[in-house]
Amino acid sequence: MKLIYDMVDIEVLAIEGLDDAIIGSTIRNGREVLAYNYDKAVDIIKAAGHSEEYAEEWIAEVSSKEFDGAPAFIYVDNNQEFYGPSSPAGTTVH
């Protein structure tokens, strides 16, 4: 059996300057969009000379816009205490 995969180009909107905060993609309103790590995005905006309050307000404003391809900002919680010290073999936490 021979499997053939066609490469599909998917256009996504990217926010200039936040490339290092991209953690992947997700589906929003039925369309694949870029997913940004919220905390990394805040750090990048702060490193550009803005306050934390400005960064959080800016992200909130972008996140509240409902336009085709609007990116998603994801809160990443790596708190091991919440998930326990280890997971059973063969399991994943999402």
Question: What order do the helices and strands come in, and which of them pair?
Answer:
Elements: E1 22-28, E2 31-37, H1 38-47, H2 52-64, E3 72-74, H3 80-83
Parallel strand pairs: 2-3
Antiparallel strand pairs: 1-2
Overview of this structure, please?
The model has no long low-confidence stretch (mean pLDDT 81). Strand 1 and strand 2 form a beta hairpin. The chain has a three-stranded mixed β-sheet with strand order 1-2-3. The protein is of the alpha+beta class and 94 residues long. The two termini are 33 Å apart. It has helices at 38-47, 52-64, 80-83, and strands at 22-28, 31-37, 72-74. It has a domain at 21-77. It contains three helices and three strands; from the N terminus they run E-E-H-H-E-H.
Question: Can you give the helix content as a percent range?
Answer: 25-40%
Count of helical segments?
A: 3
Q: Kindly name the structural category.
A: alpha+beta
Instruction: Bin the strand percentage.
Output: 15-25%
Compute the average pLDDT: 81
Shape verdict:
globular
Main sheet: strand order: 1-2-3
What are the key terms here?
18% strand; 29% helix; 94 residues; three-stranded mixed β-sheet; alpha+beta
Give a short synopsis of this structure:
The chain has 94 residues and is α+β, with helices and mostly antiparallel strands.
